[in-house]
Amino acid sequence: MFEILMYLFESYIDAGSYPAPDKLSRKLSAAGFEGEDIDEALNWLSALREQNSDSYPVVLAHSGMRFFAELEFSLIGAEARQFLLFAEQQKMITAIEREIIIDRALALQQKDLGLDKLKLIMLIVLWDRHHDLSPLLVEELLVPITSTQLH
């Protein structure tokens, strides 16, 4: 599924959004993705689209610290959790976006989700919510953690 998410971002970033699910399904199939993977990705994206102002408050004003639940600990790796909190502290994401990213990470039901995959989830969530991402943010989220580039 992560290959599909990356394909969507790379293919549709300039368009601002991806096509409707039925058209997108055909395009993904034509691009060579498997039907089961396409269905999983479309379900994941559909659930992301449901995360709107009705699901979350407009602003989450707090001065506290976010503690992770046991399920979050088991499904999101330590490095990914640390980066998520760092991203919020650095104002890369809001507290609401953090919660949406956690929701989408948990939806995958993947044990010990790594930093690279969390960054891709973060990128898709931010793209879905803002459509006009900073090139520096995109670069930060796309650069693999094994990169030897200095920042």
Notes on the structure:
This protein has 151 residues and is mainly alpha-helical. It folds into two domains: 1-50; 62-151. It has helices at 2-12, 21-30, 35-49, 70-75, 78-89, 95-107, 115-130, 135-142. The chain is globular.
What characteristics describe this protein?
Smg, disordered C terminus, single chain, 151 residues, mainly alpha, globular, Protein Smg homolog, 8 helices, 2 domains
Write a brief caption for the model.
This protein has 151 residues and is mostly helical. Helices cover 60% and strands 0% of the residues.
Topology record:
Elements: H1 2-12, H2 21-30, H3 35-49, H4 70-75, H5 78-89, H6 95-107, H7 115-130, H8 135-142
- Share of helix among residues? 55-70%
- How many structural units, i.e. domains? 2
Average pLDDT score: 84
Q: What distance lies between the first and last C-alpha atoms, to the nearest angstrom?
A: 29 Å
Strand content: under 5%
- Number of helical segments with 4 or more residues: 8
Structural class by secondary-structure content: mainly alpha
Order of helices and strands: HHHHHHHH
> How would a crystallographer describe the biggest sheet?
none
Taking pLDDT < 50 over at least 5 consecutive residues as the criterion, the unreliable ranges are 145-151
Number of strands: 0
